Amino acid sequence: MNTTSNSTGPEPEWVLAEKYEQLTGVTPMAIHNRRRAGIWRDGQHCAVVRRRLYVNVKEADQWIRNQLS
User: Fold this and answer.
1) How far apart are alpha carbons 65 and 50 in whole angstroms?
2) pLDDT tens track for 18-27
């Protein structure tokens, strides 16, 4: 049983690039550059939906962990 209280609800898997910048400091331009270079894959690390750039937080975190090893 989970005894911790999370009043904000579950963490989203996908967030807008602007929110990701608030959380991590990684700018939307840096995300676009990673997409263009093929470092981050559309549909896995990021996605463009109706001209809005989203980041998959879990996949982005996994990518960072992989860079450390």
Assistant:
1) 30
2) 999 999 999 9
